């Protein structure tokens, strides 16, 4: 089998290259970012093999490069202590400042485990009972709380208990806004099966705060953070963190800024360092602050995981009989290993991700904080390198490693061209493709989207030309091809792609409408409707958060609160409707009242409802 290079040449910034293209100086992670408590004696892994610090840090740097991960923070636990912490890469690709051991990262769903631990303390103390209904602790019916009106009259809500919440068997979705209806409702019966849910944790937070009269931040500081020496951890964004924090990034190394958390959310608002969280895991494995019974329950499956993926379509597919036995305890996921139950948890947000796994019977754990979701592609290789972990259920979690067929295909195309990349793809075993994708067409599409995100527009265009030839029945193919062409300003070629797509989709209402919409958008860019200057002047002004101004003979548009601070040029589709070059799914229409004056603008969208904004003043 022909192999593609192990490190993609398009990894334009992780680790070494990032420092070179930023204003900050290059740095050596081993010298500049290692914690004072790290030594050169090395790391003992699960199988008792050793790893020197030099081998460890060289390997981590190579993985970051391959996975296109801007920054990483690592903590290793062994023999009841945090024995190694270090930072790698950069806090921001914009500044090039290196990650340090004290850099604060978004903890994301690590928040749930710290909250779970304080809940278990309250259960030990008799403040809560593990199997009593949550509603029994509330002073009014759950449906009378503003955030839970969806549950008014819902009998199943009265059956939920702390055990169901901590084992993720409430039957709730992860979050209501991820559902088609956008409401909080039961997608499974309580205790029917495992179904990861932030909604359940947030509901338990309401109960805890009602019962104790304290908010989660106060409880966590007194029960978790202070006792365990977690000095740079909080459920809120503290001023003390402002001097050293990691900026979120998208999959393509673009900084997204830093989310400021001014309200504590037990399901996801915490911020921490790997060292702090490592100290927490030391306490968890020792059962510090818990009864022996509560500690045992943490590492005892309350429910067996029987589905193939945590999220997505495969969450409805049975788990492979060959997969290690997995379940969920009280707060953590569990998976069988040669060293007893391993406990794990993930964290994920738009621009950051976390992972940890621990082996209580060996006293070994590793914590990974990343400032991009690309941490998930790196986690399998990192845990394998650092502690010899081959047990974490990464397929269940949906962590597609950077060594997967998709990432290696993108690598091969970027380094050797589409033709060579497709030749390499043809050499793959079908099972290797189906491990992550239902068929080759899905793999090709994922690779094409990666190439667009990496601004390899020419290769993306060539790949999608192959795609539409091989899979004309996939009606989205010409849409993808058109997108690859428009981002490189090849609008005439994109128009041809959309025309072919419209012809193929003539019997499909959705895709026919989409192609028609995009053809109108391109027509406005290439041959805009001529609108009199006097009419353009009439359109200028403020419409709430929307602002329209005239520059020369063209209108420019800006909406306050959007990511792009600069006004963007409008191109006339008709006398009263305009498009923007940067957005093929949006139109702006100027509306007149009965008196003939322009009194509002309406945003028109391809896939969502219009929104209207009145002129200020009218």
Structure report:
The structure is a single chain. The protein has 618 residues and is α+β, with helices and mostly antiparallel strands. It folds into 3 domains: 110-397, DD-peptidase/beta-lactamase superfamily (Beta-lactamase, 3-Layer(aba) Sandwich), CATH 3.40.710.10; 405-525, Tetratricopeptide repeat domain (Serine Threonine Protein Phosphatase 5, Tetratricopeptide repeat); 533-614, Lipocalin (Beta Barrel). The protein is built from 20 helices and 22 strands. The strands form 5 sheets. An 8-stranded antiparallel beta sheet has the order 4-3-14-13-12-11-10-9, sandwiched between helices. An 8-stranded antiparallel beta sheet has the order 15-16-17-18-19-20-21-22. A two-stranded antiparallel ribbon has the order 1-2. Helix 4 (110-124) packs across helix 7 and helix 17 runs antiparallel to helix 18 (491-504).
Q: Biggest sheet: strands, sense, closure?
A: 8 strands, antiparallel
Which spans have pLDDT < 50 for at least 5 consecutive residues? 1-32
Which structural class matches the secondary elements?
alpha+beta
**What order do the strands of the largest sheet run in, or round the barrel if closed?**
4-3-14-13-12-11-10-9
Which architecture name of the largest domain does CATH use? 3-Layer(aba) Sandwich
Q: What is the helix tally?
A: 20
Average pLDDT works out at: 91
- Which fold name fills CATH's third level, the topology of the largest domain? Beta-lactamase
């Amino acid at each position: 089998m022909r192999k593609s290079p192990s490190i993609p040449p398009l990894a334009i910034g992780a680790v070494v290259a990032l420092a070179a293209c930023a204003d900050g100086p290059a740095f050596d992670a081993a010298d500049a970012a290692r914690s004072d408590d790290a030594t050169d004696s090395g790391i003992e892994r699960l199988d008792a093999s050793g790893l020197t610090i030099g081998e460890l840090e060289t390997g981590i740097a190579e993985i970051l490069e391959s996975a296109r991960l801007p920054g990483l923070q690592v903590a290793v636990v062994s023999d009841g202590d945090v024995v190694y912490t270090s930072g790698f890469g950069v806090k921001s690709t914009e500044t090039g400042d290196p990650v340090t051991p004290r850099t604060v990262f978004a903890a994301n769903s690590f928040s749930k485990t710290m909250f779970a631990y304080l809940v278990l303390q309250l259960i030990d103390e008799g403040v809560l009972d593990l199997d009593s209904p949550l509603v029994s602790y509330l002073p009014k019916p759950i449906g009378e709380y503003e955030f839970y009106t969806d549950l008014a009259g819902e009998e199943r809500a009265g059956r939920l208990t702390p055990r169901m919440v901590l084992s993720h068997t409430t039957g709730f979705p992860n979050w209501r806004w991820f559902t088609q209806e956008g409401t909080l409702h039961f997608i499974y019966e309580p205790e029917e099966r495992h179904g990861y849910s932030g909604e359940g944790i947030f509901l338990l937070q309401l109960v805890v705060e009602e019962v104790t009269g304290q908010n989660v931040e106060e409880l966590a500081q007194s029960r978790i953070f202070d006792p365990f020496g977690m000095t740079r951890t909080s459920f809120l964004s503290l001023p003390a963190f402002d001097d050293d924090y990691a900026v979120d990034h998208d999959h393509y190394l673009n900084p997204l800024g830093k989310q400021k958390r001014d309200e504590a959310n037990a399901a996801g608002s915490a911020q921490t360092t790997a060292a702090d969280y490592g100290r927490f895991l030391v306490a968890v494995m020792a059962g510090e602050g818990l009864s022996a019974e509560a500690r045992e329950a943490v590492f005892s499956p309350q429910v067996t995981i029987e589905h193939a993926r945590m999220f997505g379509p495969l969450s409805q597919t049975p788990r492979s009989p060959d997969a290690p036995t997995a379940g969920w305890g009280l707060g953590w996921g569990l998976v069988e290993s040669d060293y007893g139950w391993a406990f794990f948890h993930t964290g994920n947000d738009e621009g950051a991700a976390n992972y940890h796994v621990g082996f209580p019977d060996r006293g070994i754990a590793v914590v990974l904080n990343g400032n991009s979701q690309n941490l998930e592609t790196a986690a399998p290789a990192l845990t394998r390198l650092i502690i010899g972990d081959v047990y974490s259920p990464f397929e269940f979690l949906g962590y597609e490693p950077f060594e997967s067929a998709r990432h290696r295909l993108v690598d091969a195309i970027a380094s050797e061209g589409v033709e060579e990349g497709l030749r390499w793809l043809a050499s793959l075993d079908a099972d290797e493709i189906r491990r992550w994708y239902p068929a080759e067409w899905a793999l090709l599409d994922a690779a094409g989207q990666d190439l667009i995100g990496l601004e390899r527009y020419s290769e993306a265009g060539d790949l999608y030309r192959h795609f539409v030839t091989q899979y004309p029945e996939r009606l989205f193919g010409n849409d993808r091809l058109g997108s690859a062409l428009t981002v490189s300003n090849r609008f005439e070629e994109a128009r041809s792609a959309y025309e072919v797509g419209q012809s193929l989709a003539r019997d499909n209402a959705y895709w026919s409408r989409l192609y028609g919409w995009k053809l109108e958008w391109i027509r406005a860019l290439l041959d805009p409707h001529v609108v009199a200057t006097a009419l353009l002047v009439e359109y200028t002004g403020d419409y709430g958060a929307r602002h329209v101004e005239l520059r020369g003979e063209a209108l420019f548009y800006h909406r306050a609160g959007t990511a792009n601070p600069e006004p963007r040029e409008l191109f006339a589709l008709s006398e009263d409707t305009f498009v923007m070059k940067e957005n093929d799914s949006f139109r702006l229409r100027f509306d007149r009242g009965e008196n003939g004056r322009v009194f509002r603008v309406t945003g028109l969208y391809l896939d969502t409802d219009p929104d209207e904004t009145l002129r200020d003043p009218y």
